[in-house]
């Protein structure tokens, strides 16, 4: 046995429990709110764009059509009947996906900025300070 060691094992330091439960709750809420918000704004944008001549492909506007074989499946008939009552469904879904990506990107940038403000320091107490090197332009 060494001079500075003990025969009794010391308990390891407590591990980080992962993500704080509050942050998990906010993430779960955002996974529900962002798509709903995106779909609602997509419906408004598609209706506004269709009435003002935006270049939305004509195949995306109107009610969707489905292959006749899908109507023969028992469970899908009622769902397909409901989907055929929705106007501009394909354009709404495409716009909602695009808006969801934009909202997610904006929220990621905001989260990154807030993390740099309130997060842990970049260097710990045992890290060496970054070197300050002045580089001269190389000339022959």
Number of helices: 4
Helix-residue proportion: 40-55%
Basic shape: elongated
Structural class: mainly alpha
| CA gyration radius, whole angstroms | 28 Å
Characterize the main sheet: none
Number of strands: 0
- The chain-level mean pLDDT equals 86
What gap, in angstroms, lies between the N and C termini?
A: 61 Å
Order of helices and strands: HHHH
Beta-strand content = under 5%
Given as residue ranges, the uncertain stretches (5+ residues, pLDDT < 50) are none
Structure description:
- This protein has 140 residues and is mainly alpha-helical.
- The protein has a domain at 58-117.
- The protein is built from 4 helices and no strands.
- It is elongated.
- The N and C termini lie far apart (61 Å).
- The model has no long low-confidence stretch (mean pLDDT 86).
Keywords:
mainly alpha, 4 helices, 0% strand, 140 residues
How are the secondary structure elements laid out?
Blueprint (H helix, E strand, L loop, with lengths): L20 H31 L16 H4 L4 H8 L5 H30 L22
Helix pairs in contact: 1-4
């Amino acid at each position: 046995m060494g001079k500075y060691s003990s025969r009794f094992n010391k308990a390891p330091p407590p591990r980080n429990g992962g993500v704080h439960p509050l942050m998990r709750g906010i993430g779960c809420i955002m996974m529900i709110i962002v798509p709903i918000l995106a779909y609602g704004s997509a419906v408004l944008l598609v209706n506004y764009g269709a009435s003002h001549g935006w270049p939305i492909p004509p195949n995306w506007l109107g009610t969707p059509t489905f292959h006749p074989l899908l109507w023969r499946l028992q469970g899908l008939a009622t769902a397909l009947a409901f989907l055929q009552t929705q106007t501009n469904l394909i354009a709404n879904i495409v716009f909602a996906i695009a808006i969801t990506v934009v909202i997610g990107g904006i929220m990621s940038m905001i989260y990154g900025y807030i993390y740099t403000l309130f997060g842990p320091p970049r260097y710990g107490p045992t890290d060496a300070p970054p070197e300050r090197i002045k580089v001269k332009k190389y000339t022959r």
